[in-house]
Backbone:
């Protein structure tokens, strides 16, 4: 009887707890940092009404791209990984689908077959006089060698993939510093005048108005050029966060007092979503990551719209874009000799 009473007390307690603890629900989605800190020049002069033009940046230079449904975001009912858009992601996805899953199926079916075979063929009724064999050298070699071969087939591509994921970026790669804060992200562009983008989650209404998925969409995006390795320096200002973009096969912890480095490369223009992936406090689930991948030319314009400087170009914000962009195409010639030396 006491058991019964205890169980009921526990059950009622459990039912009530979530309402008491759901601090996340109670908190408004208002950003911790005022958006004015966001983007240097523009933010101050743009009136609040301009919110509807999304970023508040000069629309002649940059208009936020609409995401493609099902690309760079989770898809309802999908049991596979998200579609991959980075070189390492494509390899990893291929290893999973072409090597690991067939092997898992093969091994499972083989073991199931052996099990049924033993159960039916060697049951007492069918096999009244069992064999007394205790050793069979040939079979013992087979069941050692085959699993070893299976492990080698898995190890070779997966270890080389692991190594490739942590290869340092080329010397001339664009650097973006990513900082995790409770509970939003900051993106600094040291190669482009060191401006910082503060990125907060959009409210359901704002996300809807912009045609973006709620809880994945952010007001200001991290923008990178397409098809180029970008060096991300990842850190945090308060507690441990984790910067993750599933469709780029990217995840790295953001640790206060430490800078973690990893290359991010996305080979298709578009919008890609991610989330903080290290439990970091009450609003951990509300600090999404939005990455917009643009052509080099559009990326340069975005940098100018933020009052930044384009690499290899004198600090003269918002001049004739066409000539400036043309000059930029040759921007990688910073120190070719050094770059070569570093890659070798
Ligand atoms: Cu976090």
Residues:
């Amino acid at each position: 009887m006491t058991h019964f009473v205890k169980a009921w007390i526990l059950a009622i307690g459990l039912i009530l707890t979530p309402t008491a603890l759901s601090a996340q629900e109670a908190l408004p989605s208002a950003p911790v940092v005022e958006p004015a800190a966001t983007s240097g020049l523009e933010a101050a002069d743009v009136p609040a009404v301009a919110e509807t033009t999304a970023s508040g940046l000069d629309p002649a230079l940059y208009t936020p791209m609409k995401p493609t449904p099902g690309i760079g975001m989770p898809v309802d009912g999908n049991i596979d990984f998200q579609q991959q858009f980075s070189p390492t992601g494509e390899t990893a996805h291929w290893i999973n689908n072409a090597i690991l899953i067939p092997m898992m199926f093969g091994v499972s079916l083989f073991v199931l077959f052996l099990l049924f075979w033993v159960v039916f063929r060697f049951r007492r009724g069918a096999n009244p006089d069992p064999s007394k064999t205790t050793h069979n050298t040939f079979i013992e070699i087979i069941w050692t060698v085959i699993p070893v071969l299976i492990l080698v087939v898995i190890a070779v591509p997966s270890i080389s993939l692991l190594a490739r994921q942590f290869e340092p970026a080329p010397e001339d790669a664009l650097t973006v510093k990513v900082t995790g804060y409770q509970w939003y992200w900051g993106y600094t562009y040291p190669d482009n005048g060191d401006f910082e983008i503060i990125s907060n989650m959009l409210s359901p209404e704002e996300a809807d108005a912009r045609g973006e998925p709620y809880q994945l969409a952010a007001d200001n995006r991290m923008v990178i050029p397409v098809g180029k390795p970008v060096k991300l320096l990842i850190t945090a200002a308060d507690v441990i966060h984790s910067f993750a973009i599933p469709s780029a096969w990217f995840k790295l912890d953001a640790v206060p007092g430490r800078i973690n480095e990893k290359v991010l490369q996305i080979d298709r223009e578009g919008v890609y979503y991610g989330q903080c992936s290290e439990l970091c406090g009450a609003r951990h689930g509300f600090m999404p990551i939005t990455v917009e991948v643009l052509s080099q030319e559009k990326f340069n314009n975005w940098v100018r719209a933020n009052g930044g400087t384009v690499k290899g170009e004198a600090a003269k914000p918002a001049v004739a874009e066409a000539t400036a962009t043309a000059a930029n195409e040759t921007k990688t010639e910073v120190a070719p000799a050094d770059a070569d030396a570093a890659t070798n």
Summary: Residues 174-309+322-329 form a domain with the Immunoglobulin-like fold (CATH 2.60.40.420). The pocket of copper (II) ion is lined by residues 180, 241, 276, 278, 280, 284, 287 (CB under 6 Å). The mean pLDDT is 82.
